[in-house]
Amino acid sequence: MTTIAVLGAGKIGEALLSGLLQGGRPAEELLFTEKHPERAAELTEQYGVEGLDVASAAQRADVVVVAVKPQDIEPLLDQLAPVIRPGTLVVSLCAGLPTSLYERRLPEGTPVVRVMPNTPMVVSEAMSAISAGKYAQAEHLNLVDDLLQTVGKVARVPENQQDAVTALSGSGPAYFFYLVEAMIDAGILLGIPRDLATRLIIQSAVGAAQMLNRNDQHPVILREAVTSPAGTTIMAIRELEKHGVRAAMLAAIEAARDRSVELGRDHEAD
Ligand SMILES: NC(=O)C1=CN([C@@H]2O[C@H](COP(=O)(O)OP(=O)(O)OC[C@H]3O[C@@H](n4cnc5c(N)ncnc54)[C@H](OP(=O)(O)O)[C@@H]3O)[C@@H](O)[C@H]2O)C=CC1
Ligand SMILES: O=C(O)[C@@H]1CCC=N1
């Protein structure tokens, strides 16, 4: 039995708890900590998972998953450092934070794995990228890989790619939601009722995602197959190009990468 404590059961922490439960992990093997007692009570009622304080969770956990905002890491490490048991595996889900931060602040030799997951974890379709810290061995990386495979797909990446990965797949679902939102608005502009516009666009997104997921055709080929000569799609593509949507996407993802780097810099050693 491997006991996993999620420290900070907010959006991604809750997604992980619910994904692991859906993946068949028993509630008795999961713990969480939360700042607000009302939220902790709600989560326990909904998932049957026990909420504890950091010290009690650290006493019982074999794996500690850190899922607080990067800006909240320092007080959490202050709480964790004196109570974590030797050999406990620390898994960080935090954007920007390097494994070296944990290695510096927690007892010497603490194994750390940095992970960038995403919220489709709630439907067991997460994309998680994992990187080993200085003291993490193959067994630690394998354990995290197995754990995350129950909630989606896993890629192993060098830690120096994690800021870019954060910008691509960590934030990635938000870009798709944004696009869906904009397309539904376009439906409203064209006089389609919101419910119908929403159904049309969501099913188009689901179908397109499944075609992409078949892995046998490049997105360009799929787009070309929709784009008839002198037809409707090419008129739309011309507008997208005119408005610089591709360039906007490149600049947006670069800005997200830069913010991830900045979040890590805030916690560099003096
Ligand atoms: N949301 C996402 O799609 C993704 C997020 N991440 C990363 O996951 C982390 C969490 O993000 P997200 O879930 O969105 O953020 P949330 O703010 O939703 O969740 C963090 C939770 O932790 C609580 N918290 C803060 N400090 C402590 C503490 N010392 N002990 C216990 N609980 C604490 C917060 O309470 P309070 O709100 O009161 O401060 C909040 O409920 C971030 O580092 C983010 O970079 C990674 C990938 C995707
Ligand atoms: O926006 C954020 O900072 C977090 C990290 C990746 C997705 N959400």
Automatic annotation (TrEMBL):
<dbReference type="InterPro" id="IPR036291">
    <property type="entry name" value="NAD(P)-bd_dom_sf"/>
</dbReference>
<keyword id="KW-0028">Amino-acid biosynthesis</keyword>
<comment type="similarity">
    <text>Belongs to the pyrroline-5-carboxylate reductase family.</text>
</comment>
<dbReference type="InterPro" id="IPR053790">
    <property type="entry name" value="P5CR-like_CS"/>
</dbReference>
<comment type="function">
    <text>Catalyzes the reduction of 1-pyrroline-5-carboxylate (PCA) to L-proline.</text>
</comment>
<feature type="domain" description="Pyrroline-5-carboxylate reductase dimerisation">
    <location>
        <begin position="159"/>
        <end position="263"/>
    </location>
</feature>
<protein>
    <recommendedName>
        <fullName>Pyrroline-5-carboxylate reductase</fullName>
        <ecNumber>1.5.1.2</ecNumber>
    </recommendedName>
</protein>
<comment type="pathway">
    <text>Amino-acid biosynthesis; L-proline biosynthesis; L-proline from L-glutamate 5-semialdehyde: step 1/1.</text>
</comment>
<dbReference type="InterPro" id="IPR008927">
    <property type="entry name" value="6-PGluconate_DH-like_C_sf"/>
</dbReference>
<dbReference type="GO" id="GO:0055129">
    <property type="term" value="P:L-proline biosynthetic process"/>
</dbReference>
<dbReference type="InterPro" id="IPR000304">
    <property type="entry name" value="Pyrroline-COOH_reductase"/>
</dbReference>
<keyword id="KW-0963">Cytoplasm</keyword>
<dbReference type="GO" id="GO:0004735">
    <property type="term" value="F:pyrroline-5-carboxylate reductase activity"/>
</dbReference>
<dbReference type="Pfam" id="PF14748">
    <property type="entry name" value="P5CR_dimer"/>
</dbReference>
<dbReference type="InterPro" id="IPR028939">
    <property type="entry name" value="P5C_Rdtase_cat_N"/>
</dbReference>
<dbReference type="InterPro" id="IPR029036">
    <property type="entry name" value="P5CR_dimer"/>
</dbReference>
<feature type="domain" description="Pyrroline-5-carboxylate reductase catalytic N-terminal">
    <location>
        <begin position="3"/>
        <end position="96"/>
    </location>
</feature>
<dbReference type="GO" id="GO:0005737">
    <property type="term" value="C:cytoplasm"/>
</dbReference>
<keyword id="KW-0560">Oxidoreductase</keyword>
<keyword id="KW-0521">NADP</keyword>
<keyword id="KW-0641">Proline biosynthesis</keyword>
<dbReference type="Pfam" id="PF03807">
    <property type="entry name" value="F420_oxidored"/>
</dbReference>
<feature type="binding site">
    <location>
        <begin position="67"/>
        <end position="70"/>
    </location>
    <ligand>
        <name>NADP(+)</name>
    </ligand>
</feature>
